[in-house]
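Researcher: Here's a chain I'd like modeled. Treat it as a single chain, no partners, no ligands.
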Amino acid sequence: MNYLELFPTILGETIISDISLNEVERYKIYLNNLEYEDNGTGNYRGTFNQQVLDEPIFSKLKAKILKYAKEYLKTQGIILEDIRIVNSWGTKTNIDERSLKHMHVNSYISGVYYLEESSNINFYNPLENKWMFNIIKEFKEDNSYTHTYKFYTPTTNSLVIFPSYLPHEIETSKKDSRKSISFNIIPIGSIGKNTAILEIK
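Model: Modeled as a single isolated chain. Structure tokens:
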């Protein structure tokens, strides 16, 4: 029997190579000096400042993120007037800390920029909770149809973008004070067709 994968979930990933390591170090120092709080999705911390990418030091990074986010959407045939980063925050994870599985609400697409190598981010199959039976699956490494999650291993300057509905978690950190910047994006302008047009400014 042949099997077809219908409507896959798309994750975008790249290395932002034209941000220098010196710039990355400046980002780390800046984030180090911000205040952090427990954000409620595990035992790692997020900045009180929820508009980090609006700070002048991150103007180049913000422009790159928007560029890649538009490319991510265009690849899927999504037509929008424009997009906006509605919130962005620094995260700090110490040794043996992690984040629990969660999604990003009030958002269309989300992403993470990594300032250094990090523990894996695990993305869970969003269709698993659609089934009406709690069936046990037999996992097989060489059979992707049995996988309930996929992982991505971040490196310095890596960027991942994904649909905000996609459940994800960060594995336990093996290093102290691991930093990244997370963000949420929504479409703006005139969205949709007649009888269902939404205007977001």
